[in-house]
Each structure stands twice: as C-alpha cells, then as structure tokens.
Amino acid sequence: xxxxxxxxxxxxxxxxxxxxxxxxxxxxxxxxxxxxxxxxxxxxxxxxxxxxxxxxxxxxxxxxxxxxxxxxxxxxxxxxxxxxxxxxxxxxxxxxxxxxxxxxxxxxxxxxxxxxxxxxxxxxxxxxxxxxxxxxxxxxxxxxxxxxxxxxxxxxxxxxxxxxxxxxxxxxxxxxxxxxxxxxxxxxxxxxxxxxxxxxxxxxxxxxxxxxxxxxxxxxxxxxxxxxxxxxxxxxxxxxxxxxxxxxxxxxxxxxxxxxxxxxxxxxxxxxxxxxxxxxxxxxxxxxxxxxxxxxxxxxxxxxxxxxx
Length: 309
Ligand code: FPP
Ligand code: ZN
Fold this sequence. Notes:
The protein contains 14 helices and 2 strands, in the order ααααααααααααββαα. The chain is an all-alpha fold. The chain has a single domain, classed as Glycosyltransferase, CATH 1.50.10. It has a two-stranded antiparallel sheet. Strand 1 and strand 2 form a beta hairpin. It binds farnesyl diphosphate and zinc ion. Residues 225, 227, 267, 277 line the site of zinc ion. Farnesyl diphosphate is lined by residues 83, 131, 134-135, 177, 179-180, 182-183, 218, 231, 301.
C-alpha cells in the first residue's frame, strides 16, 4: 500500500503562504482565514505546527477582527461572518491563545445572529443554514459562552432539519447531505443532544456513502471525494458506528489521492491538490488512527490535545 507522504504535505502547506499570486491563492483570497485554519490544523496533526511563527499568525488573525461588532472577516478588510469567526477562534485555540480575544464581545456577536426559531444567520444579511448553527455552537463552546444563546431552541431547529432517511439538510425539508450531517451531528454532540438521533438509521445512510473504489461520497449517486472522508467519518464516530465502514479501502483511496512528488492531496485520484482536501485526507486518516498522526476531535475539528483544554 502507498504511504502517507507527511514531509511532502508539510512542505506543500508551508509553500502556499509564499506563492501569494497564483490561481489557488487568488481563489482563496476571500476565505483566507478558513484556508489558514485547514492548513495549520493539518500541520498540527502532522506534528509540525512548530514550523510556523505563532506571533505572526496571531497578529494576522487579529487584523481580520472587527472591533466594532466582535466578528471576524475572511481576510483583512473583509466583512465579518460566522464561518470566519469560527476559523479565527479555532486558530487561536490551536496556539492556546484564546486569551488575546475579548470572548464576551465575540460571543455577543455570535449570539446576535440567532433567530427567533433557534436557527442562525451567517451574517447581517441573514442567510440561514445548519452550517451556521454548527459554527455558532462550536465557537461559543470553545469560548465557554454557550449560555449566551438559547441552546434548547438551537437544538430544536437542528432537529427540525432531520429527514426520514435519518440525515439532515441545510434548512427544514432540505436534502440530506454529508457536510450538513457533520454540522448537525457536531452541534448536537457539543450540546449533549445526540439522543435526538436514530443512530442505526443515520449510520446506515452514512456507511452507504462508501463507493466501490473505497472512497466516500456526500449523497447518493455522487462520485467519491476525499472531503467526505472527513464529513462522513467524523459523523459516524460521533454516533458510534464507524466500524460500519471498510477502513482499509478508504485509507487506500485517500493515499491514492496524494501528489507523491510535490505534496498535497486532491479530491479524486490524479486531480489538482488543494489545502482543503489535504486537510480532509490527513484528518480522515487521523480519524482512522493511521500511525504517527495526532488524533483529531470529530466534533470540534481540532486536535484532541487542543480540544481537551
Ligand atoms: C460540503 O461542501 C460541506 C458542507 C456543506 C459542510 C460545511 C461545514 C462548515 C463550513 C462548518 C465548518 C467546518 C469545520 C470542519 C470546522 P460542498 O459545498 O463542497 O459540497 P458538494 O460536494 O455537494 O459540492
Ligand atoms: Zn471535496
């Protein structure tokens, strides 16, 4: 079997920062803080977070902070959004530097995005999605400020997005999708509300995502993609059904999506690599206890030693 090319992946991640004007960097411009979170978490799982200067990262993250409202943008000068606020808080947690934040202010920003029905908008423009419920709950839990929101209503809204197939969608009635399932199960796990889930029914839907080539897809009839190694496996672990997946075949699929020369992992074999799929591949292997990797917490998406504070 192929092996994980850890050193090459570390080099690849460190190189992204340097080539700021290529296409990938350009496409990532508006969500740079998400990219930073994925890249840094991958380095930490590979035991190489020491290759970056924490002060440099923290001072850049804090330049994305909006002091007026308490939220973070995706890059310096960009508008605040829950997706970026979670990444910022996760990055600070990785370096054990939550103390640089005014946790009260950030949590008031997050709590202000909760709607009357318990759902969350992503930002002031109002789009509602269970992704934002996860971002809010994960972020507030890391900040120890879950008491700022109505948790019961938040949980009830997520439960209202549950479908007859056991999965979850982005809003009530929305089609089940593995990414959305991760968000709902993660939020329910963090709030101690997994009793709302039919574990066998959902476990069955999730393990049916494994395709003939060993990889996982995100919905029926779709191609396998490395990112679903994260969305599906983390969900299966949280509901205690991960033994329903053929781990060897999935491990082979992920390893086969590596660029063995220049590092990085792609979504499918022989496609172009990117930092997201490099994280999803390495984190997926970590969830399957691949040797030499730090374990990652399936709900917080942070290394266990970080999430264990
Ligand atoms: C599928 O994406 C993924 C999702 C819908 C979940 C996204 C979750 C977050 C952004 C929350 C933060 C996550 C973590 C781990 C901290 P896609 O649009 O690529 O789906 P597609 O394959 O159907 O195109
Ligand atoms: Zn993908």
